[in-house]
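User: Okay, second chain of the day. Same drill as before: sequence in, structure tokens out.
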Amino acid sequence: MLDPFIGSGTTAIAAMQLGRRCIGIEMSPAYFQVAKQRTDALQLPMPLFLENDPAENNQHVMDEGDNEYYESVGT
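Assistant: Same drill. Structure tokens below.
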């Protein structure tokens, strides 16, 4: 489930309670902290938020099937 405006995290909490994966995007640091606190309180085995700078992870590592995909879409 993708929530491009995660806000306080209500949709993410519902998704996680239903056993679904969730990706949330939030520009506001204040809302990010609220959503992080609420989802951390669920005590799930895996954290919802990454703690590092996303700019550091901006590199795509090619997988074996990537060439087939890129050739099929003509890029």
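The chain is about 35% helix and 5% strand.

User: Thanks, on to the next one.
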